[in-house]
Amino acid sequence: RYFDSCLEARSQDDLPVVLMIFTKEDAPQWLYSNGVPKVIETDNLGNAVGWSPYYMDADYKLFFKRMISTVHQHVETLSDTMRNKIISVEACLGSTGDYISYKGNVEPQYQISGPQFFDLYKEFTLYYYNEYLNTNPKINIGSNPKNDGADQAIWFRDNCPGGWIKTGSIGKGYQ
């Protein structure tokens, strides 16, 4: 209902709509009672500054992919007025839409290395891409690859043809 009311409000003008579904602290609390570890993020003094689901957890991957499919299925049931305004969905995979797993320090068993997060980026991005590949009208996949990592942008370009790349830091700097 909330999702639909937000889309209804945003479809009242002539502007296009980009869907962004966040995780980190916006992930539903029921994940944690269904087997997904809740990762506490701390600052350098050990103070809790936030939390996230453990992105590499098999249950999290299952639930996250199910969410991607469920949202897409729901979007296709919307009225033409709302559905036709949706032009893109940004694959928000880590702490925000940015290419960051955690913001802060985490327990060693939950740390995600650069190569591991890149693997998650590829896995989840391809899932989003394939889910929205044959939409009509087209819903493009958007991605916000690592700002200083050409590898992520090149991988996205090569594996998600027609996808849109968001250059967050560059955009913020020029706005």
Structure notes:
The mean pLDDT is 89. It is globular, with a radius of gyration of 17 Å. It has helices at 2-10, 58-75, 80-83, 114-132, 150-159, 168-174, and strands at 17-20, 38-42, 48-53, 86-90, 140-143, 164-165. The protein is α/β, with parallel strands linked by helices and 175 residues long. The longest helix is centred in the last third of the chain and has 19 residues, at 114-132. β2 (38-42) and β3 (48-53) form a beta hairpin. The two termini are 33 Å apart. α2 packs parallel to α4 (114-132) and α4 runs parallel beside α5 (150-159). Strands 1-4-5-6 form a 4-stranded parallel β-sheet, with helices on one face. Strands 2-3 form a two-stranded antiparallel sheet.
Question: Briefly, what is this?
Answer:
Helix content is 38%, strand content 15%.
Number of strands: 6
Overall average residue pLDDT? 89
**Ends apart, CA distance between termini:** 33 Å
Can you list the strand order of the major beta sheet?
1-4-5-6
Give the amount of beta strand, in percent: 5-15%
N-to-C SSE series? Answer: HEEEHHEHEHEH
Computed over alpha carbons, the radius of gyration is 17 Å
Structural class: alpha/beta
